[in-house]
Amino acid sequence: MSKLTAKKVTGVALITVLLIVSLAAVLATQMTARLQLQMQRTNNVTLNQQAYWYAMGAEAFAKRILINVFEDEKDVTHLEQIWAQGETSYPVDFGQITGEIFDMQACFNLNALRPDDNAIPAGTRRRPIEEAFQKLIMSLNVEGVSQFDAEYMTDALVDWLDQNSAIASAGGAEDNDYSAKEFPYLPANYYLASITELRLIEHFTVPVINKLKEYACVIPNNNLHKININTIRSDQPELLEAFLGIPLADAENALASREGAGFKTRDEFFNLPDISKNTKITNDQKEQFDVVSHYFKLKSIASFNDSYFALSTLMKVESNNNISVVSRTIGRE
Which CATH class is domain 112-215? Predict the structure, then answer.
């Protein structure tokens, strides 16, 4: 073999070796990068899992608080009990747990608008609860919302909740209305799962929904309509105004006269001068209110290192003082 040929062979071999080394370096770099990504992913899952268990610990703690409260005062729920102390934070190893318990009967349950199997036929007079809900919408004083709009919102919500596909009244909406949209869907014809579901319902607007969140709530799969007069916030007299049909000033005065421990009985509230002078209040209207609550929501946020976990837990206090979980929602509401 000549010297020239030998040099050519040596050059090709060198290039081949360099290519192999380069390829090996690229593969090693990619493998290292993927390994680091997998390690980081595993670490994130571990941190998030720990934050999750911190949130579940907050839920267990809230259950114990409610059990203790109902063991002491099972017939009355008020804002001086320990569950109502507001947002509370607890330091834990490498993180923090923040939680707050809300009374889900200190607001109007929108599912209470769902008609039963023997619902009033279309075209007849609206039910009192529907008229009260219209008054509540009007009392929100949302710009541009008229009595006509309030009626249409109520009709559409009732149609969304009822079990049939028949339009209840002029403002109602059923399958044909929703399926004709640019992005079609069908009404639930069932209970609301969340108040944010209102954004799917005809006639409701974002300003109305945002304002309504301060006065209304959703208890899933339940049409319970019992508002606790002990836990209504003092800045929510509109609830009394709408559902009792009394002047706003009387409702404000009644809530202002409420002591921290609230009323022991419903009659004690309705015997207040500002309430009893409204002689047109019916027994059915009185039945909408109570002094004890059984549904509560815990909103908790747990942090562990740089990981966060938000959990909302809806709980029910059973007759035997056990606490059952109705639903859990992951993420901020």
Answer: mainly alpha
Which amino acid, one-letter code, is at 67? I
Res 44: pLDDT: 67
Q: What does pTM read for this prediction?
A: 0.84
Q: Quick count: other Cβ atoms within 10 Å of Cβ 306?
A: 11
Domain positions in the chain: 112-215
Describe the strand order of the beta sheet including 323-330 as a list of residue ranges: 88-92, 95-103, 295-304, 307-317, 323-330
| Dist CA 189 CA 204 (whole Å) | 17
pLDDT mean over 202-218: 95
What pLDDT, in 10s, does the model give residues 289-309?
A: 999 999 999 999 999 888 889
Could you tell me if 300 and 90 are in contact, meaning their C-beta atoms sit under 8 angstroms apart?
no
Closest CA to 123 of 150, 155, 149, 148: 155
Write out the chain in H/E/C secondary structure.
CCHHHHHHHHHHHHHHHHHHHHHHHHHHHHHHHHHHHHHHHHHHHHHHHHHHHHHHHHHHHHHHHHHHHHHHCCCCCCCCCHHHCCCEEEEECCEEEEEEEEECCCCEEHHHHCCCCCCCCCCCCCCHHHHHHHHHHHHCCCCCCCHHHHHHHHHHHHHHHCCCCCCCCCCCCCHHHHHCCCCCCCCCCCCCCCHHHHHHCCCCCHHHHHHHCCCEECCCCCCCCCEECCCCCCCCHHHHHHHHCCCHHHHHHHHHCCCCCCCCCHHHHHCCHHHHCCCCCCHHHHCCEECCCCEEEEEEEEEECCEEEEEEEEEEECCCCCEEEEEEEECCC
